[in-house]
């Protein structure tokens, strides 16, 4: 599903370059639940953004579902992103002006899905996540845990192959964090969704099957 060959990422610095990721080669198979760990500044978010097609690598090759990512044009990359990837952020990234219902519907609008189909998909997710009663509320009216539940609902509504999550429970109490991890576990086991999360928490990582460790931009093996 995911294959990185010697991926590096650098930023220009003076007359030289500062490397943030170096020679990363790894594979993540369909249906895996993987955690990326490492100290602050070790390149975890950068790696996740490259994997999730939000950022380009500077060097190396990335194959996502057998597509060579660097060789795709922006239109193809956006299409792949919309159809195959769901993203969950630490600070939720919900749209404050939209209701819970509208936030969850957004990815389906981008996909150009017709209204009746959108309605039924959003209704299914609201029901499954037990948040039907919250559908007309705005994000500011929800607790952090509920907001992240909506964040996950929005990530999953378009039925992606992979969910990338960047410290999804970083702003949550441990009980709320466990709820989100249990949800990931269920999406992984029942729906076969591949999960790749960045986390500082050993407890969160224990919900997954494998840990990828980074140190100073290198794979720490
Ligand atoms: P982590 O998620 O492990 O904390 P990041 O991937 O966020 O690490 O960042 C890794 C390193 O890359 C940090 O030293 C950070 O300062 C640097 N970095 C991230 N984005 C940029 C950028 N746009 N320009 C320059 N340096 C950056
Ligand atoms: P999104 O809309 O999902 O944030 P885009 O595909 O619009 O991502 O990319 C934003 C910018 O980053 C574009 O200018 C694009 O050229 C560049 N970019 C993003 N991902 C890649 C990638 N994997 N390879 C090359 N360039 C990329």
TrEMBL record:
What PROSITE patterns does this protein map onto?
A: ABC_TRANSPORTER_1 (PS00211), ABC_TRANSPORTER_2 (PS50893)
Ranges for domain ABC transporter: 2-221
Q: Keyword Cytoplasm: yes or no?
A: no
Per the record's keyword annotation, is Cell inner membrane included, yes or no? Answer: no
Give this protein's Gene Ontology molecular function annotations. Answer: ATP binding; ATP hydrolysis activity; transmembrane transporter activity
Q: Which UniProt keywords apply?
A: ATP-binding, Nucleotide-binding, Translocase, Transport
By its UniProt entry, which Pfam families does this protein fall under?
ABC_tran (PF00005)
Q: Name one GO cellular component term.
A: membrane protein complex
SUPFAM superfamilies, per the entry: P-loop containing nucleoside triphosphate hydrolases (SSF52540)
Q: Which family does it belong to?
A: Belongs to the ABC transporter superfamily. Macrolide exporter (TC 3.A.1.122) family.
Q: What is this protein called?
A: Phosphonate ABC transporter ATP-binding protein
The record lists the organism as Jiulongibacter sediminis
